[in-house]
Write a structure and sequence with these properties.
CATH superfamily of the largest domain: Type I PLP-dependent aspartate aminotransferase-like (Major domain)
CATH architecture of the largest domain: 3-Layer(aba) Sandwich
Number of helices: 16
Oligomer: single chain
Strand content: 5-15%
Distance between the termini: 39 Å
CATH topology of the largest domain: Aspartate Aminotransferase, domain 2
CATH class of the largest domain: Alpha Beta
Number of domains: 2
Shape: globular
Bound molecules: D-serine
Helix content: 40-55%
Length: 430
């Protein structure tokens, strides 16, 4: 479809902004661990006339006519999700990860239940807002309690979580994280949940691609329900999914629709189906393992530069470092990196003395760079540039020089989703 051509004619102003963002994405080293590059096939499936159709309900049980093809698309996405993750049931309609989490809590915790307590990982320790953090509606609709990480090792302390779970007696325990650089022991979480009579929800949004590719243990055999976004390590469109045991399928489906959402985004469902097809390939398995190998190599490079890594390393896709040893706050460090073409986000570190808006840490990851084909050798350069950008944050010449080197490397590893002719190289800092 000539979508770009149409945009040029209809809305050149918007077209120009898209082109600028394309150039930015193409030449920047995308280090935000929750971002990635979707393939051209995923982008094409997501940009189709499927956006024109309303489909409230589920396949074969819709409220609108004309679902002959949409039903097949949703069924394809559902069957691929079940196959890739070995799940008993899949719902591919959540608009993203936050609605997926809310739907799961609503589905698993009956509105008449006396026990509506959820126990999740606190935001400063690496949990997500929707794991019951105080500013999230998940802590208004449910009585939310939070566990943390060990004060010394910054690792999950499963004995401490068990002790807290015995005190709280939650209806639901939530495991999973947005800023935890180590393997999560889902089997252990299942034991804890069983011991206190709770249901287990695993949010695998960050690691779904690693799970699909066998580079991180799967929560699916252990959790009553597993939620995920589809656009992080899984490399699909922006969307969400819920995988669950058959016993919970009905309440969870009803919580998604009609409980929380209206019509599913069918163009996104199509993109998810394509991403799951790609995730089932042998190449994706190699990709998932390379993400971890790259993360370990980048962690080594950063430690070599004197940076202090939370937990002292990484065994997934993500690294969290304290910028203080380089004399910077997290925000100063991330801003300097951004000027040098290294895109990251400032992030709290466990027991952070600073505010969440300008915390001590920076969160980076390797999923997107690995999608471009970078390997361990390039990670050594990236680690060096990160340190140089933070150290040289007051010196435009340093930032300009690093950005130039980053752009050169990115030009040599074209991003998926981009076709030649590639975007023109953006200007460096003045
Ligand atoms: N915003 C996501 C992240 O960056 O981790 C979580 O939803």
């Amino acid at each position: 479809m000539q979508t770009r051509n149409a945009l040029t004619h209809v809305d050149p102003e918007l077209e120009r902004l898209v082109q600028l963002e394309e150039a930015r994405q193409f030449y920047t080293a995308k280090l935000i661990p929750s971002e990635n590059y979707a393939s051209l096939a995923v982008l094409q499936a997501s940009g189709t006339v499927l956006t024109n159709k309303y489909s409230e309900g589920y396949a074969r049980k819709r409220y609108y006519e004309g679902q002959q093809i949409i039903d097949q698309i949703e069924e394809l996405a559902v069957s691929r999700a079940k196959a890739v993750f070995g799940a008993e049931h899949a719902n591919v309609q959540p608009y993203s990860g936050s609605p997926a989490n809310l739907a799961v809590y609503c589905g698993l915790i009956s509105k008449t239940a006396e026990n509506n307590r959820i126990l999740g990982l606190g935001l400063p320790a690496g949990g997500h807002l929707t794991h019951g953090w105080k500013v999230s509606v998940t802590s208004r609709f449910f009585q939310a309690f939070q566990y943390g990480v060990d004060p010394t090792t910054h690792l999950l302390d499963y004995d401490a979580i068990l002790t807290q779970a015995r005190e709280v007696r939650p209806a639901v325990i939530v495991c999973g994280a947005t800023a935890y650089p180590r393997i999560i022991d889902f089997a252990r979480f299942a034991e804890i949940a069983k011991e206190v009579g709770a249901l287990l929800v695993a949010d695998m949004a960050h690691i779904a691609g690693l799970v699909a590719g066998g580079a991180h243990p799967s929560p699916v055999p252990y959790a009553d329900a597993v939620t995920t976004t589809t656009h992080k390590t899984l490399r699909g469109p922006r969307g969400g999914m819920i995988l669950c045991k058959s016993a919970h399928a009905n309440v969870i489906d009803k919580a998604v629709f009609p409980g929380l959402q209206g019509g599913p985004h069918n163009h996104t469902t199509a993109g998810i189906a394509v991403a799951l097809h790609e995730a089932a390939s042998p190449e994706f398995r190699s990709y998932a393992h390379q993400i971890v190998a790259n993360s370990r190599a980048l962690a080594e490079a950063l430690m070599h530069e004197g940076l202090e890594l939370v937990t002292g390393g990484s065994d997934n896709h993500l690294i969290l470092f304290n910028a203080a040893p380089l004399g910077a706050t997290g925000k100063q460090a991330a801003s300097a990196m951004d000027l040098a073409g290294l895109e990251a986000n400032a992030n709290t570190i466990p027991f952070d003395p600073r505010s969440p808006f300008d915390p001590s840490g920076v969160r980076i990851g390797t999923p997107a760079l690995t999608s471009r084909g970078l390997k361990q050798a390039e990670m050594a350069s990236v680690g060096r540039w990160i340190a140089q950008a933070i150290r040289g944050r007051e010196d435009p010449a340093v930032l300009r020089r690093v950005a130039g080197e980053v752009y050169d490397l990115m030009a040599a590893f074209p991003a998926p989703g981009f076709e030649a002719p590639f975007p023109a190289r953006p200007a460096l800092l003045a």
